[in-house]
Amino acid sequence: MRVAALALALALSPAWAQPLSDSAHLDLRLELPAMDVANYARPYVAIWLEDGDRQAVANLALWTGNQTDWLKDIRRWWRQFGRYQADGVDGYSSATRTAGVHQLQWDGTGTDGKRLAQGEYTLYVEVVREHGGRDLVRQRITLGDSAFTLSTEPMAEVGAVELTYTP
Known about the structure:
single chain, about 170 residues, mainly beta, Immunoglobulin-like, 4-stranded antiparallel beta sheet, 2 helices, about 35% strand
């Protein structure tokens, strides 16, 4: 009886419960707009993925330099990821970026170093500037066997975010 139930459960599980292929990757391009304001400070940027249960499963980038005192100002990232990983932040944090276009590539691995499962995710890009504004880009994406390219609308602190997924 248990064997039959397990076989049925496996047969009904979604096809995309498979891990992402070894070649799957996500290319991300974002612009940090130039601003002519007094006391301009380079923004802090966090980029991560959450699964359907709103659990942070991959940290793609954290640009804060050595300013760990300000991590809590990246509010959404801090609540979902940072406060649980605060001891290891300096292991994946890198320097803040100047205004301009920046690119990065994510290799399909999660915070545990394993390939994520195919499925629905939400990409977040949070940009916070001291003495400035805060923007949060939220984009639903499907990582699976189909390639896609999409772009988000520009905001005050972050220009358009362009995504290209290759399975």
